[in-house]
Structures are given as structure tokens and as C-alpha cells.
From TrEMBL, chain A:
<dbReference type="InterPro" id="IPR011006">
    <property type="entry name" value="CheY-like_superfamily"/>
</dbReference>
<feature type="modified residue" description="4-aspartylphosphate">
    <location>
        <position position="52"/>
    </location>
</feature>
<keyword id="KW-0597">Phosphoprotein</keyword>
<dbReference type="GO" id="GO:0000160">
    <property type="term" value="P:phosphorelay signal transduction system"/>
</dbReference>
<dbReference type="InterPro" id="IPR001789">
    <property type="entry name" value="Sig_transdc_resp-reg_receiver"/>
</dbReference>
<protein>
    <submittedName>
        <fullName>Two-component system response regulator</fullName>
    </submittedName>
</protein>
<feature type="domain" description="Response regulatory">
    <location>
        <begin position="3"/>
        <end position="119"/>
    </location>
</feature>
<dbReference type="Pfam" id="PF00072">
    <property type="entry name" value="Response_reg"/>
</dbReference>
Length: 123, 655
């Protein structure tokens, strides 16, 4: 069972997304801010990270950049999962090191396809 | 045998004659100077006089004595004339007596000379001629006739002013030249002194008329002064000329403020002859109609500039009055000096005006500069504010997008989660109702996307990322996005990409957005038809273009709506909108994007037959130039990838 790290600060959405991911058949770990995200990424070394961008303490762009700067973690695919969904935000996320960009509200079918593609690639 | 006294007298006279002749010669050699010629003549005259006198003393016979005396008279009569002439030229007064008058002065001496030689006929010079003999020798002792006194008077009337002029020059001479001045005084008074001694029978005067020796001394002294001393030959002249010819008016006053001297400028100024005003009070000089207050001429000391109305209009004068202090500070008189400074004043006035003009110009320039700086600052502030406002707007739009999306994420996400958790069968009603929530939420998201995109375009904050990208990858992405829509309407989906089209330099994301928009529209309005995405070069029109076109076989657009189809919220009316959904902003955004990328968008349509949208973007990269011509494009095989009812039959070439 692929292990996912979901980074999401909004509790309501976190529960909702976890529901969907579990239903899709993933093991999900949770982080609520950027620092936790970086720590858990190192501790758990998940197969994939779903990263919100508008996070407290350390934002998602910086957290992504930190994870990608670590040679051990750099291969973990990161999907930006954000309500910052303007075209400029796409570029910003990709520049930070994200491997894909999914917007909120979430198209779960599309997200599932993206996750499968990335997991297949990293394996 | 002459006595010792006679011998001494003769010796002195001979010495005088010799020195005078030398002076005369020297003077003649320097005759280029005005005063040298009369000095030379005077020297000759003294020589003749002294030599004649010596001969007279050496003789005892009356006839011989008389002959010597008559010979002496050549010198005696001419000396005063030459002496005066010399004094005038030497002290710079030559203009007082012009050349013709110099010769007129010789008339009386000439008459005297003739009378002396013809005395035997009339006795006008000597009534009787005799000699007296004493222990000192034989002396000529005539009884003088009437003309002799005329001659004497005439001679003194010439000698005295000459003496006076020389004395004045000597007294005016700067104290640095005191010795020279003293010599000049001696030269001036020597003849008179000699004559005085003779008349009073004092010293050598007992035996001898010392007049010729006096003149001899004078001539020698002057010769020494002028030829050795050098200084006096220029200074008195220079001083006098300066005084006379200076353009400033100068009046010298005595302690009673009577005019002692004035120069030519001053005399012209008051239009009075110099001779007429000497001795008059200074106030008498002032014309009756002058506006010059008398105190300017009678003040003790003044240094001012005043304006006076004269017959040549208003003129400016600088007036100075200062006392001439004599020995122990006693006032000897005053010097009144003035200068016409009208032109200087005019220049100053002009300068002042020019300065004022420059000042004004400078000021206005400065004001203009300040104004300009102010404008620039205001402009910069306005620009900064506009930029800040745009940035703020952009940030606001971004945050707004985030804030609007977050609750929608929950709404749609939870609706979908419930949908997943529902079992089959009896929950169909709930499933349909959840679908309504989900669709409404999605529509809301689309509206937010489009509105905020448009807002960002309007704010000038929409950014474009130009890069070279592969067209095939773009097409892949588009197929993924549009496939579900095409599936829904049961349409054939045809991709028609010209072989030559491989890469394009532009904003891939924006072009993708435009094409997805157009294809979504096509799918929305087409049921069981064909939707075609075509990409090719267009080199037929000016410049090189890449053309993306979307064709459908759908319901088409009524001509009435074709013209406004790219405007905001221009949607097909009423029931159709409800049926097909959409925000009404998609085509507007497509048009804005296309134009911002320097391209054009156009549409052709036929009702119930279908529509075609053409997006043409400029090709600016070098590789476009080597692209094959249109004929080759037409002829080339067109690989067609067909997506039919959701199935993709083939992959695009580069994959």
C-alpha cells in the first residue's frame, strides 16, 4: 500500500481528503504545517507527498524546496494541492520543485491519475 | 694793462661764453625736442652777449667799446625772447603763444638792435656815449635814451613771466626731485639776481653787469637739468599735459574759494575762457540754470555721484572736492575734480537690467525646474501607486481565488465523499442530488477561475511565460482534459497536426487554456458529431503564423451573435444557457490571451452546421523561416489521430 504524506492545515478539508485517499487505497500520514511536513518527510520517507501551499509557519513552496534540497528525499514526488490555482501559482509551485500541480476544489479522478503516474515513475 | 678785477671779469665772461656755446651746441643736437631749439638760441645769445662784454672790458678806446656793446646787443635783445620761448615750451605752455607770435615777439628786439647800431643818427638808445676810467679799468658809461627804457621794460616783461613759469614748475615738482627743483629755481632767478646785484652795486655788481653771467648760469643749469637730469624734461610736461588735456574737469581754488587754475575741460564745461575766470569765486562759474547745488563746489570734502541736467540731457557726474593741506595742515585751497560718468552709469544700468533679466530668467527656469520636478514626483508617485495598486489587486485576486476555493473544496469534496460511500440501488435520488451540488460547485469554480483571470488581465497583471515547447505534448495534455467532455456528447474527436509543426515558442499554459476552452465549447454544443483540432503553419499572410483551429459539427451560432461572441457574458440566450452551462467569460478570456500574445482570434459559423474558431499566433523564432512553404504543407500527409467516444486510437507522433 503506497504511503502518502498529506500536508494540509485546514482540518475540514484534511478529513475530507483523507476519506477520499483511503477510499482510493492509500496509507495516509498527516502534517498540518510546513515544518511538520519537512520533519515527517525525513522520518517517514513516504512514497509521495501531497502539499498544500498556503501553510502556517513554513509555507508549502519553501517546504517543498527544503525537501527537494535533501538528496535523500529529492526523489519523493510532490504534488502541489492548492487553492492558489491561478496560472502564476502553477509556475510558482513548479519552480519550488513540485512534480505536478493539482488545484482545489480537487478533481479526484485527475489526482488519482497523476498520483499513479508519479508513483509508477518513481518506482 | 687791465686791472685784476677786469681780468677776473673777462675770464668769467669768457667761461660763460664758452659754456653757453657748448650748451647751445648740445641743445641744437637735441632740437627734436620742442624746448631744445629755444635753449640753443638762448645759448647763442648768451655767448654773443658774454663775448661782447669781454671784448668791451678788454678795450679802452670808446670806438672799440661801442662796437663791442653794439655787438652785445644782438644777444641782449634776443635773450628774453628765447628765454620766454624756452620757458613756455619747457613747462608745457607752448600752446599759450603760437608760432607766429613767437616771431612777433622779435619785433621790438629787432627795432632795438637797429636803433643801437644807428644811435649816432638819433641817440634814442644812448643820448651820449662816454667811458669812465678808474683803478679797475675803463667802463662804458652812457647816458640812456628813451628807447633804452622801452627795451628794458620789454625785456623784463618777457623775463619775469618766464621766471615765473619756471618757478611754478619747480614748486610743483615732486619732492623726490627736490635738487632738480632747486636747480630750476636757481636757473629761473639767476639772471634777475645778477641784474639786481649790478643795479644795487653789490659784490661783483660794483664792476660788472652780471646779467649775461646770470643767463649763462641759467643756461648751464637748465642744460645740466635737461641733459643730465633727464627727469624734468618729461615730468613737468607730462604733468601739465595731463592736467590740461585730461577729460576730467579740474579746478584749483585758493583758501577764499577763488579760482586759481582750471583745465581746458573745466573751462569748456562752463563755457568760459580760462583767463576770464581766474580769480573769480567758484560760485560765479555756475550757470544760472544749473541744478548743481552750490555746496557741491564749496564743500570742504565731497566724494559723490550726482545726476545733472545739461544741454545734452541728463548726465551723471562723479564729483570730488578735497582740501589741499599745506604746511602744518593749513588749508592752501581746494581741488575740485569731476568726471562725466554717464556712459559708465549707462553701462552699469544696462548691466543691472541684464542682470535683472538674467535673474528673472534664472528664477523662471528654477520655477520651471521645480515645477517639472514636482510633476515628475507626482508622476512617479502616481506610477508607484498604480503599480502598487496593480500589485495589491493582483495579490487580492490571488487571495480571493484561494478564499473562494477553500470552502468550495469542502462542499464538492464532501459531496463526492458521500457519493463514494453510498451503496448501490436505493440511493439513486441522493446520488442525483449530490450530483447537483457537485455540478453547481464546479460551475462556481469555473466562474471564479474565469472572473479572476479576467480581473487579472484587466489589472495588467497577467503574466506570460514564453518558452519553446513541443506541440505534441500540449496536444496530449489537451486530449486528457477534453476527452471526458467529448465522451459525454458521443463525438468523434479528430486531431490534425501538420507534420512540419513540432515546436513553438510561446506560453504553453495559456495556449492550452485557450484550446481547452474552445474544445469544451465545441463539445458542449455538439452531439454525435465531429470535433476537430487542427494545427498548421500559415505562411500565406504577411509574416509567419501558427494557426490552431477548432471545428465542430454542432448547432452553430446565429449571425446576430457572431459579432458579439467574444464580449463578456455574451451567451446564447435563455434556455440554451441553462442547458449548456458555462460562465460566458471563456471566449472573452481566449480573445484577451490571444491579443496579449500578439495573435488574432476569429470565428465562422453556420447555424445547425457547425462553427470554426481560428487562433493565429505569430511565429518569431528562426526555425519558422526554414519551415516549408504552404504548398508543401498542403501536399504533405496529414496524420490523423482520432478519439472516438472516448477512445484514443493513436498517440501523437513525438510520444
Amino acid at each position: 500500500m503506497p504511503r502518502l504524506l498529506l500536508v494540509e492545515d485546514n482540518e475540514m478539508n484534511r478529513q475530507m481528503i483523507v476519506g477520499h485517499l483511503k477510499w482510493l487505497g492509500y496509507e495516509v500520514f498527516l502534517a498540518a504545517d510546513g515544518h511538520q511536513a519537512v520533519e515527517l518527510a525525513a522520518d517517514l520517507q513516504p512514497d509521495l507527498i501531497l502539499m498544500d501551499m498556503g501553510l502556517p509557519l513554513l509555507n508549502g513552496w519553501d517546504a517543498t524546496a527544503q525537501i527537494k534540497a535533501d538528496p535523500v528525499l529529492a526523489t519523493i514526488p510532490i504534488i502541489a494541492l492548492t487553492a492558489y490555482a491561478m496560472s502564476d501559482d502553477y509556475y510558482r509551485s513548479m519552480a519550488a520543485g513540485c512534480d505536478a500541480f493539482e488545484t482545489k476544489p480537487i478533481d479526484f479522478e485527475h489526482l488519482a491519475a497523476t498520483m499513479e503516474r508519479l508513483l509508477a515513475g518513481s518506482r | 694793462m687791465p686791472s685784476l678785477v677786469a681780468i677776473i671779469c673777462i675770464f668769467m665772461l669768457v667761461v660763460t661764453a664758452l659754456t653757453s656755446s657748448i650748451v647751445s651746441l648740445q641743445g641744437w643736437r637735441r632740437r627734436d625736442r620742442a624746448w631744445a631749439r629755444p635753449l640753443s638760441f638762448a645759448g647763442i645769445a648768451v655767448t654773443i652777449m658774454a663775448a661782447g662784454y669781454a671784448v668791451e672790458l678788454a678795450n679802452t678806446q670808446l670806438e672799440n667799446i661801442l662796437l663791442a656793446v653794439r655787438f652785445q646787443y644782438i644777444g641782449i635783445v634776443s635773450i628774453p625772447v628765447f628765454w620766454l620761448w624756452f620757458a613756455l615750451t619747457y613747462t608745457g605752455r607752448s600752446k599759450m603763444v603760437d608760432a607766429s607770435r613767437h616771431y612777433a615777439l622779435l619785433i621790438v628786439p629787432a627795432l632795438t638792435l637797429i636803433l643801437a647800431w644807428t644811435n649816432d643818427l638819433h641817440g634814442l638808445i644812448w643820448q651820449s656815449t662816454a667811458v669812465t676810467v678808474n683803478e679797475n679799468g675803463t667802463f662804458f658809461a652812457p647816458t640812456y635814451g628813451s628807447w633804452f627804457w622801452i627795451h628794458t621794460l620789454y625785456s623784463y616783461s618777457l623775463i619775469l613771466p618766464a621766471t615765473g613759469f619756471l618757478m611754478m614748475t619747480a614748486l610743483r615738482t615732486h619732492r623726490l626731485f627736490r635738487w632738480q627743483a632747486l636747480m630750476l629755481v636757481m636757473a629761473a632767478v639767476a639772471p634777475l639776481l645778477g641784474n639786481l646785484l649790478y643795479l644795487l652795486r653789490i659784490g661783483p655788481g660794483q664792476f660788472l653787469d652780471l646779467l649775461p653771467i646770470g643767463f649763462g648760469v641759467s643756461v648751464l643749469l637748465v642744460a645740466l637739468l635737461t641733459m643730465r637730469g633727464r627727469l624734468l624734461e618729461v615730468i613737468p610736461l607730462a604733468r601739465t599735459l595731463t592736467f590740461e588735456q585730461m577729460r576730467d574737469g579740474v579746478v584749483v581754488l585758493d583758501p577764499e574759494r577763488r579760482i586759481v587754475d582750471l583745465n581746458i575741460t573745466a573751462s569748456k564745461m562752463f563755457n568760459r575762457a580760462i583767463a576770464d575766470v581766474i580769480g573769480m569765486p567758484i560760485t560765479a562759474l555756475l550757470p544760472a540754470d544749473t541744478n548743481l547745488p552750490a555746496q557741491y563746489l564749496t564743500a570742504h570734502e565731497i566724494d559723490e555721484e550726482i545726476a545733472l541736467t545739461t544741454n545734452t540731457g541728463l548726465r551723471w557726474f562723479s564729483i570730488q572736492v578735497f582740501p589741499l593741506a599745506g604746511w602744518r595742515g593749513r588749508i592752501k585751497g581746494w581741488l575740485v575734480h569731476w568726471r562725466d560718468i554717464t556712459s559708465r552709469r549707462q553701462d552699469e544700468e544696462l548691466l543691472r537690467l541684464r542682470n535683472a533679466e538674467l535673474e528673472a530668467l534664472h528664477l523662471s527656469l528654477q520655477q520651471e525646474l521645480v515645477e517639472r520636478q514636482r510633476t515628475e514626483i507626482a508622476l512617479a508617485q502616481a506610477r508607484d501607486m498604480a503599480e502598487a495598486s496593480s500589485r495589491t489587486k493582483s495579490a487580492f485576486i490571488g487571495n480571493m481565488s484561494h478564499e473562494l476555493r477553500t470552502p468550495l473544496t469542502s462542499i464538492i469534496g464532501y459531496a463526492q465523499l458521500i457519493e463514494r460511500q453510498l451503496g448501490g440501488g436505493d440511493d439513486e435520488l441522493i446520488r442525483a442530488e449530490l450530483e447537483i451540488i457537485i455540478n453547481a460547485g464546479r460551475h462556481q469554480v469555473e466562474l471564479i477561475n474565469d472572473l479572476l483571470d479576467l480581473a487579472k488581465i484587466e489589472a495588467g497583471q497577467m503574466q506570460f511565460k514564453y518558452d519553446e515547447f513541443a506541440i505534441s505534448l500540449l496536444i496530449d495534455r489537451i486530449i486528457q482534459m477534453v476527452q471526458p467532455l467529448a465522451q459525454r456528447g458521443g463525438n468523434r474527436f479528430v486531431i490534425d497536426v501538420s507534420d512540419e509543426v513540432e515546436t513553438y515558442y510561446g506560453d504553453e499554459q495559456k495556449i492550452g487554456q485557450i484550446l481547452i476552452n474552445l474544445l469544451s465549447n465545441a463539445a458542449k454544443f455538439t452531439q454525435h458529431g465531429t470535433i476537430t483540432l487542427r494545427v498548421r503553419y500559415d505562411l500565406r499572410n504577411d509574416g509567419a503564423w501558427i494557426e490552431f483551429s477548432v471545428h465542430d459539427t454542432g448547432i452553430g451560432i446565429a449571425p446576430a451573435f457572431l459579432t458579439t461572441i467574444f464580449e463578456e457574458f455574451s451567451q446564447i440566450p435563455g434556455s440554451l444557457q441553462q442547458q449548456y452551462g458555462g460562465t460566458g467569460l471563456g471566449l472573452t478570456i481566449c480573445k484577451r490571451y490571444t491579443e496579449l500574445m500578439k495573435g488574432t482570434i476569429s470565428v465562422t459559423s453556420e447555424e445547425n452546421r457547425g462553427s470554426s474558431f481560428y487562433v493565429r499566433l505569430p511565429v518569431e523564432r528562426d526555425w519558422a523561416i526554414i519551415a516549408p512553404p504552404s504548398s508543401a504543407l498542403e501536399a504533405s500527409g496529414k496524420p490523423i489521430y482520432v478519439a472516438d467516444t472516448g477512445e484514443i486510437y493513436a498517440s501523437p507522433p513525438s510520444r
